Amino acid sequence: MSKQNHQNFLSRYVFISVVFAVFALLIVGKALYIMTAKRDYWEKVANNKTVKGRTIPQRRGNILSGDGLLLASTLPEYGIYMDFTTGGEKKDSVLMEKMDSICNGLHDIFPDISAQQFEQHLLKGRAAKSKYYPIIKRRITYRQFSEVKKLPLFNTSKYFGGFIDKPNNARSNPYGQLASKTIGDMYRGKDEPRLGLELTFDSILAGRSGTQHFEKVLNEMVPVVDEEPVDGDDIVTTLDIKIQDLAEKALAEKLKEIDANVGVAIVMEVATGDIKAMVNLEKNSKGEYQELQNHAVSDMLEPGSVFKTASIMVALDDGVVDTTYKVNTGNGVMKMHGQDMRDHNWRKGGYGTISVPKILQVSSNIGVSYIIDHFYKDDPDRFVQGIHRTGLAEDLKVPLPNYHKPSIRHPEKNSHGQYTNWYKTTLPWMSIGYETMVPPISTVTFYNAIANNGKMMRPRLVKQVMRNGQVIKEYPPVVIREQICKPTTLEKIRTMLRQVVSIGLGKKAGSSTFPVSGKTGTAQIAKGKKGYHSGTMNYLVSFAGYFPSDQPKYSCIVCIQKPGPSASGGGMAGPVFKKIAEGIMARDLRLSAADAHDNHSAAIPDVKNGDVKAARSVLDKYGIASWSNWQKTDVNNGMVWGMATTTTQNVRLNKSEQSSYGTIPDVTGMGARDAVYLLESNGAKVWIEGRGKVTWQSLPAGHRIARGDTCVIRLK
Q: What pLDDT, on a 0 to 100 scale, did the predictor assign at position 168?
């Protein structure tokens, strides 16, 4: 390159560099100008283009029964509104033309409001030219919302028809009041738990909301997700809805019969401590019985005679008496440190001299109080320590907000060796169930330990936490005490409790089909500062025990608070215990397929769609002819999904192609169990209405499942 050319090239390079440098300085200068002098202006522009800080609601986790049934679930509810300013005159003319059809349709969906009322209401919103006018002044269900969307004008674009919907998450209890104070509930209109398991496990159930902002793009506000919401996890309880329903019906029937105020029934599985039912019924202001509070864990009442079992257990364990020891109860009245101790039959002359087993059989106040006072009056702390040894005073740590642990007094002395909280009458009355406060849950846990060979289990209400159908946390059974007494003592106590029912005051709790063990209880209820002398006397009648006696499966307690007179634990709580026990044992009874065959039934039964492999297995058991278009090699995870068609000759079981994960399958014609399993296996939430076969599903087959989608299935 010549020197001349090199000089020209260098000049052009310098010129271009200067131009770029000036251009860069202008850009930096403009940026600084915008950031300083024009900052407020551009922030206003940005705010007009972006809406910040919107919350994306999460879905609260479900509460399930031990066998997977929904006890509490979050379902969509909708507020529906009308924008009368959109669509112009054309929309308005369509509205007036279709007004009758719209109002009649709304009346059909909401029968409590007439078509005329709907018309007056909508015309009022039209006259006011309201932009956000409620079509109905309450939230509606998904099914109602689906029906409303089919009405004229409401089925058009919101920019023309003006129909606006606002989805909300609502907590629903499919089984209504069943175990409602155990399951818990939410404050109305708020996503805040109020009581029960909803409150205790809120951190697990609640999840975490997400955030989003909206940016204006081509005159439309487009949502931009900043943080995805995290749905709450599900909790699996130990409750059994069938046992819960059985216990509630049995208790309610007796409460109505004797006009009681409060009733409690708890059923516990012996081996695990699982709570299968927890019933709390109370008479409301209308005289009806419903769950108003959880008395099973919160009632701090003197337990009465069901406590006598623990007193005799302590005496036997300490070796101060054995089963041959006898007490002269006289004519049914005995002076105890200046006060009369009476047996229930004192007007009939009492029981005379009776042994320890007989004392429990007839629930003798004199017999129990004499033994404990005679052997422990000089060292009452030894007796109280013995009661603690039985586990009856244990803090059970029940995961319910209103749970109270038992209150059993320890004798205390001052510096002079004088008792400060103890009297001569304290020990004998404590031994028969007074001077102590024990909630029903603690009493049934004690009797459950007797049934469980002396091993005390902590009451368990929740056993698992699940996320997307997978178990992520287990709550295994917990042993509180390996042994509540000596094995020899336990054997004697179990024999005596069986005799209480077979030949004692607990006969009405017994069953003719299996042996029952337990103890009756009747106690006066003190009325605050007025004590036991407040006019009309109230009583707590109860029965606590287990069944069957030889191989116990369940323990149970029934407690009833009633106004006097005429109160009997065996005569009032006993029959309720019997109904619950017989109902559970009948349900657990398994008959062979041959025994269950009914010669008078239809030769070819009606078979539901669903798992046709299971259907063929049942048909084969009964010897009913079936035909299928699949082989054993087609079985997937033990199931074959298909359709069942009944002919005059046989049942045809045809395998069907199933939709892939993430899409809604066709579940029409299936039973509830198969339909729910198939839908949830594909990732959908399910809500059931009715019973029988599925006749309608809200989300059609092939629908891609989005976050929070709930498929409502209707059965008939």
A: 75
Q: Which of 588, 522, 581, 587 minimizes the C-alpha distance to 267?
A: 581
Closest CA to 428 of 493, 513, 361, 334: 334
What is the reported pTM? 0.72
pLDDT tens digit string along 298-347? 999 899 999 999 999 999 999 999 999 999 999 999 999 999 999 999 98
* Residue-wise DSSP of 614-650: HHHHHHHHTT--EEES--GGG-BTTB-EEEEEE-SS-
pLDDT value of position 649: 65
Pairing assessment for the beta strands 626-628 and 651-655 based on DSSP bridges: parallel
Q: What is the pLDDT of residues 406-462, one digit of tens each?
A: 999 989 888 888 888 899 999 999 999 999 999 999 999 999 999 999 999 999 999
- Could you say which DSSP state residue 572 is in? I
Strand ranges (DSSP E) for 162-314?
163-172, 210-217, 220-227, 234-237, 262-269, 275-283, 289-290
Pairwise CA distance, residues 207 & 133, whole Å: 32
How far apart (Å, rounded) are the C-alpha atoms in residues 302 and 343? 18
Which pLDDT does position 446 carry in this prediction? 98
Q: How far is CA 100 from the centre of its chain?
A: 44
Cβ atoms of 446 and 390 closer than 8 Å: yes
Question: Which residues neighbour 152 within 8 Å (Cβ) at sequence distance 6 or greater?
Answer: 94, 98, 101, 102, 105
**Angle (CA) 593 597 598, round 5°:** 160
List the one residue out of 611, 584, 457, 466 whose CA is nearest residue 66: 466
pLDDT of residue 15: 72
Look at strands 326-328 and 353-355 and give their pairing.
Answer: antiparallel
Residue 325 C-beta-side C-alpha neighbours within 13 Å:
18
pLDDT on residue 6: 58
pLDDT at 189: 60
Count of Cβ atoms closer than 10 Å to residue 350 Cβ = 21
C-beta separation of 629 from 590 below 8 A: no
* CA 556 centroid distance within chain: 19
Question: Any idea what DSSP says for residue 262?
Answer: E
Are 454 and 221 contacting, i.e. CB atoms less than 8 angstroms apart?
no
The pLDDT score that the predictor gives to residue 609 is 75
Which of 421, 451, 441 shows the shortest CA–CA distance to 309? 451
Instruction: Give dist(CA 443, CA 436) in Å, integer.
Output: 12
The bridge status of strand 220-227 relative to strand 210-217 is antiparallel
Please report which helix (H) or strand (E) contains residue 712, including its range: strand 710-715
**Residues in the chain where the model's pLDDT stays below 70:** 1-10, 34, 37-54, 56, 188-191, 214-222, 526-536, 589-604, 618, 620-623, 625-627, 629-638, 648-649, 659, 708
| DSSP-assigned states of every residue in 451-484 | HTTTPEEPPBSEEEEEETTEEEEE----EEES-S
d(CA 581, CA 189): 40
* Number of CB atoms found within 10 A of residue 334's CB: 22
- Show the tokens assigned to 376: 């422990």
- What is the structure's pLDDT at 601? 47
CB 438 within 8 A of CB 406: yes
pLDDT at 596: 46
CA 122/CA 98 separation, integer angstroms: 12
pLDDT at residue 260, as a whole number: 93
Tell me how far CA of residue 114 lies from CA of 19, 80, 110, 121, 314, in angstroms.
Answer: 79, 18, 8, 11, 70
Sequence-distant (≥ 6) Cβ neighbours of residue 562 within 8 angstroms = 258, 259, 260, 261, 538, 539, 541, 572
What pLDDT does 597 receive? 46
Asked if 486 and 271 touch (Cβ cutoff 8 Å), the reply is no
Per the listing, tokens 């009032």 go with 572
So what's the pLDDT on residue 623? 63
